[in-house]
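The instructor's notes for this session suggest beginning with a concrete chain rather than abstract definitions. Hand out the sequence below and ask the class to guess, before any prediction is shown, which regions might be ordered.
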Amino acid sequence: MKIIEGGICAAKGFKANGTYCGIKRPANDNPSIKHKNDICLYVSDVVCNAAAVYTQNKVKGAPITVTKANLEKSGNKAIAVIANSKNANTCNADGVEKADKMCQLVADELNIPKEQVIVASTGVIGQILPIEPIEQAVPVLAKGLCYNKNLEAATAIMTTDTVKKEYAVEFEIGGAVCHLGGMAKGSGMIHPNMATTLNFITTDCAISSELLQKALSEITKVTYNCLSIDGDTSTNDMVCILANGLANNEEISQENESYETFKSALYEVMANLTRMLAKDGEGATKLLECICSGAPDKDTAITVAKSVICSSLFKSAMFGEDANWGRVLCAIGYADAEFDIDKVDVDLKSDKGIITVCKNGSGVEFSEEKAAEVLSSDEIYILINLNQGDCDATAWGCDLTYDYVKINGDYRT
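After discussion, reveal the predicted structure:
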């Protein structure tokens, strides 16, 4: 497997574009100022098999409702995806109408069925989405579609993100060279479970829609569902994947070696996007990666790792570079899983070294000076060994800082 450039355009037959249309008017309305893209479109040259997973929040954005309905009508087929930032189109009386209109605009412009369009939105909840800027933007987006405009699309979905997030790989199935790439957005309002943020994935690998959905759901469980920034599950979370088959491999229709290779590629992309999302958490100064090993089963490992990553007290300690390992044990202790706490070991690690802080469920002596050095890095690894099995899992998050409150104190206004 080889890492490549291109994001959602890395796979054969996918074109993209992004532009600024003015969904949210800037505070400074000077036309000479170049504004960030706020809407994007990407399209496959041929009809794709499609799969998606959605937020588990009971309050769901109108785009989620429309996308689910479209995929049901189309038999999980799609050609195009349109997404906007700055307005979530959620909790609006005309939300479904506006989301459906966005799909119709794309369908009319590209001469494709409306039900083969996926729509997504992100931004402020509860504000009416202006459709007029989108009506003007869709022809511009369609006209400018290009096989190398992945960056224009990736920047268009950013809200409080400070960097764009893209990742792509090349792999081989049955002698055919395949590609799989994606882009993601998210910096706050990110918490298990799915799908935490907006994530878009494309591949030219030929795979049935049934196995595409199965693979996406399985990999989501161990990537995006193991990500937490602030404990809030968004109303608009979605991951969608389109597979157009243009790599010309024999279609994967059984859970065989080819399917496992595809899943490995999907994991590579989704895990790295997850890591990027965690590192770019709102106000974050440190990426936190918790690896739980020695678990009796996979679910226990996931539960323990997520429990530590979700602890606000532990996240605060990491911001202060305080090796307060008791907060790790506390979070492990209230995890909803069965294991013997008296067998648990904990290490803290970074590129500056490693320290053991807990052995067999009890604290051990360590140098506070060495601990401070280890925790001064911007990437911290929390290594937990339950010593009760062979299963492991990883969860990702970030520290909790003063800036998180500053960013969210006036997010709407």
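Then share the key points. The mean pLDDT is 91. The CA atoms of residues 60 and 235 lie 5 Å apart.
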